[in-house]
Design goal:
about 40% helix; Rossmann fold; seven-stranded parallel beta sheet; 7 strands; binds nicotinamide-adenine-dinucleotide; alpha/beta
Length: about 250
């Protein structure tokens, strides 16, 4: 049995996931990274798993949970589960299919629920917490983001419901970032430097967030100093969510 704290981080191969892995590992956590895309990240273990499939295939779900449990058996439990993986089906309403809804809700909403439910005893044993990475789209959105925005708003709702029911044993919180400087976000601005500058300046702090700012907030939420924070959805948005877009 090791006294080292343990973190399970989903979406570990993405821009924010990579930063979550390094920030938690640098803080002394044993990090279990999970993603469908295998990548060399700063983690002690990497589990290749499809979070869409764990919601639709019971045997596959059991196999993945058993794999995670086998890595937790030598520890004192699971100190933090960070549900960070997500997908965006960006489509006009006329083109959204039931498959888009199923896949988005599976990855962005139901898999965070299932991982929390199935790993609850390990979280309880460690007096741990869950951090759901939601988005500014939970409150403020734009055209073609119906599936994504709905899933992120529902994740905030799930965070509150679970916090109320489980809070005496495991705290559940969410982080709602505005734009974060990830390779994926930057790629969307290739050859559109002006649009990137406009996006940055729309944030009252004059820039978008760094992935490490999401990771450091998660580190605080997981810490002993945050023991009274439960059911919160913290806006990490540089003030853009308070801004009135007035033409004059
Ligand atoms: N980047 C931003 O501007 C921004 C802003 C607000 C919120 N967020 C949220 O932050 C989180 C991380 O975003 P990111 O920018 O790092 O995105 P990303 O696309 O770089 O990373 C997402 C990761 O999730 C993984 N993933 C997707 N579907 C999966 C599946 N079925 N099974 C397992 N893994 C799967 C992907 O392989 C990828 O590595 C997401 O929840 C996103 O909604 C991002």
């Amino acid at each position: 049995m090791t006294d080292k704290k343990t973190a399970l981080i989903t979406g570990a191969s993405g821009g924010i996931g990579e930063s979550l892995c390094s920030v938690f590992r640098n803080d002394g956590y044993k990090v279990i990274a999970l993603d469908r895309a295998e990548k060399l990240v700063d983690a002690d273990f990497f589990i290749k798993a499809d979070l869409d499939k764990i919601c639709s295939d019971n045997d596959y779900c059991l196999e993945i949970i058993c794999h995670i449990e086998s890595l937790l058996r030598s520890s004192h439990g699971l100190d933090v589960l960070i549900n960070n993986a997500a997908i965006q089906a960006i489509r006009p309403i006329a083109k959204i299919t039931v498959a888009d809804w199923n896949q988005t809700l599976n990855v962005n909403l139901i898999s965070p629920f299932l991982l929390t439910q199935k790993l609850f005893l390990f979280l309880e044993k460690a007096g741990g917490s869950v951090i759901n990475i939601s988005s500014i789209h939970a409150k403020l959105t734009k055209p073609e983001f119906s599936c994504y925005a709905t899933s992120k708003a529902a994740l905030v709702g799930l965070t509150k419901s679970m916090a109320v029911e489980l809070g005496s044993k495991v705290r559940i919180n969410a982080i709602c970032p505005a734009a974060v400087s990830t390779p994926m976000l930057l790629a969307g601005f290739d050859d559109q430097g002006e649009a990137y500058e406009i996006l940055s300046s729309m944030h009252p702090v004059g820039r978008i967030a760094e992935p490490s700012e999401v990771a450091k907030l998660a580190l605080f939420l997981a810490s002993k100093d945050a023991q009274f924070i439960n059911g919160a959805s913290l806006e990490l948005d540089g003030g853009i969510g308070s801004r009135l877009h007035d033409p004059v």
